[in-house]
Amino acid sequence: MSQIPAVLITGASTGIGATYAERFARRGHDLVLVARDVARMDALASRLRQEAGVMVDILAADLTQAADLAKVEARLREDARIGILVNNAGTAIGGSFVDQSVEDITKLVTLNATALLRLSRAIAPRLAEAGEGAIVNIGSVVGVAPEFGMTVYGASKAFVQFLSQGLAQELGPKGVYVQAVLPATTRTEIWAHVGADVDTMSNVMEVGDLVDAALVGFDRRELVTIPPLQDAEQWEAFDGARKAMIGNIVNALPAARYRKPA
Ligand SMILES: NC(=O)C1=CN([C@@H]2O[C@H](COP(=O)(O)OP(=O)(O)OC[C@H]3O[C@@H](n4cnc5c(N)ncnc54)[C@H](OP(=O)(O)O)[C@@H]3O)[C@@H](O)[C@H]2O)C=CC1
Ligand SMILES: N[C@@H](C=O)C(=O)O
């Protein structure tokens, strides 16, 4: 791996992914941009080559399509210059569970969870072998808040969070850093895709602020980075309660409350 590793970013044509591309380019990283909209990636790539003097490759791929996903997996397996994967591509759908189509929820899970899993799996053995590198997975605060009412989207993001935490356990000791980033409402086009006008919403974070904060967490090697959460102790208490339960969660006997009265 080169001293400054190349970064492969999915969903790099706009929004959070394009902003990651800009920030990593400014840090001197060569890039591989992955998304469907080649014209947008071309424009971004030309600008970043000119402004930051880095090399930028474009890999056009619809990550819900098997052949395209396989192409990106192969690149991650074979291109030893790539030392950082930013699994950012994601989508959301509006409506309630019973109104969402089976096709739409399947596609959402394929992109938000399966593609992210497969790309992590493609790069992880090479990074573990090298003893360095990073995987950044973009989750969402919706993944810890079923109350927000975006059930399938939130479930896919809970998967991202769990996977990231599990991979951090497995790959951390091998020298590979895994970060889960949990944004809340951020000003990007994703909201238009679910039929919402982000300009009418409150507490909207600007995308540059979100990515800059996520990169502070990255530089600190934080495992879970939640840029909008003002009080870090709340996450620590939440995670601490989970860890405290682990010692009590495996038992041969059912708890007394589940036993029939004699
Ligand atoms: N904005 C927000 O409020 C929040 C966003 N997030 C998460 O952040 C991530 C980025 O979202 P955001 O920037 O807001 O969204 P955008 O809709 O602005 O960008 C999504 C990116 O993903 C790409 N993409 C979408 N579908 C596919 C596909 N099938 N194959 C390949 N690429 C695809 C799009 O490119 P193209 O169309 O060219 O393929 C685009 O580059 C997502 O995972 C999202 O869930 C999390 C919490 C809050
Ligand atoms: N991307 C948002 C939902 O559409 C979110 O995660 O808040």
From TrEMBL:
<keyword id="KW-0560">Oxidoreductase</keyword>
<comment type="similarity">
    <text>Belongs to the short-chain dehydrogenases/reductases (SDR) family.</text>
</comment>
<dbReference type="InterPro" id="IPR057326">
    <property type="entry name" value="KR_dom"/>
</dbReference>
<dbReference type="Pfam" id="PF00106">
    <property type="entry name" value="adh_short"/>
</dbReference>
<comment type="function">
    <text>NADP-dependent dehydrogenase with broad substrate specificity acting on 3-hydroxy acids. Catalyzes the NADP-dependent oxidation of L-allo-threonine to L-2-amino-3-keto-butyrate, which is spontaneously decarboxylated into aminoacetone. Also acts on D-threonine, L-serine, D-serine, D-3-hydroxyisobutyrate, L-3-hydroxyisobutyrate, D-glycerate and L-glycerate. Able to catalyze the reduction of the malonic semialdehyde to 3-hydroxypropionic acid.</text>
</comment>
<dbReference type="InterPro" id="IPR002347">
    <property type="entry name" value="SDR_fam"/>
</dbReference>
<dbReference type="InterPro" id="IPR036291">
    <property type="entry name" value="NAD(P)-bd_dom_sf"/>
</dbReference>
<dbReference type="InterPro" id="IPR020904">
    <property type="entry name" value="Sc_DH/Rdtase_CS"/>
</dbReference>
<dbReference type="GO" id="GO:0035527">
    <property type="term" value="F:3-hydroxypropionate dehydrogenase (NADP+) activity"/>
</dbReference>
<protein>
    <recommendedName>
        <fullName>NADP-dependent 3-hydroxy acid dehydrogenase YdfG</fullName>
        <ecNumber>1.1.1.298</ecNumber>
        <ecNumber>1.1.1.381</ecNumber>
    </recommendedName>
</protein>
<feature type="domain" description="Ketoreductase">
    <location>
        <begin position="5"/>
        <end position="194"/>
    </location>
</feature>
